[in-house]
Amino acid sequence: LQDCQEFMCSAIEKAGDIVRRGIDAVKKVETKSSVFDLVTEYDGEVEDFLVKEIHNKYPDHKIIAEEKHAKEPLTDDPTWIIDPIDGTTSFVHGFPLVAISVALAYRKQLVMGIVSAPIQREIYCARRGKGATMNGNRIHTSTIDNLLQSLVGDEPSLASRDKYNQEILVRTCGLAKRVSGIRAVGSAVLGLVYVARGVLDVYQVVGIYPWDLAAGAIIVEEAGGIISHPDGSPFDVMNGSIVVSANQALHDQIITFNKEFSNKIVEIRDK
Prior knowledge:
It holds the Pfam family Inositol_P. With about 270 residues, this protein is an alpha+beta fold. Helix content is about 35%, strand content about 25%.
């Protein structure tokens, strides 16, 4: 795994040059599933570069990637899970909170995650059982264990999707009275690594994709955090929803909150 990590750290740093070149450029923007789901030529360029690097180094490894390899299943084979630009809407607008996310799974378990925040020149790395780092320095989740004192990451813009509209809006409004503050990051994987490094205490998101979460999930765990599905059930990387917390005490509180507000969402739907 160390060889895989060293290889991908080098590759993802080179891919960051593409993002830095494109952040302020005029972009060719296309929509995918909706007007809220964007893609640029830079997404494709980053993905193509990383896929080529992986195929050259590890020709037998599988790949799941957002733009051209999204429908590949997760098997027991070594599988790279790639989001070439997480936060494409931010990228389109030149907003600098964007990331490149790459995870490695083996036997359907995450074993490594690497995240690059190219504009900030930050690289987050984790291998199973080896801890987590940012630019080579060990990172750890915060010591905040009271939800009322916590800074929480959430993504209310995902309420644009009808399926999650009420869930996200009801939860976010309720959460505003229970925490110190709420921050919309605009990139799920950055939200996760911000919990890992202790600048957010909780982060949760629903209705996204494996490549948005895979690398950040293992980085949070290796930094001492707790991860699960927002209802408290075990995290499944292929599910697309997650809540992460700095520690178990905080995690218990956010899961209790989520369960309380899930009942309110059901009440609203029934009316």
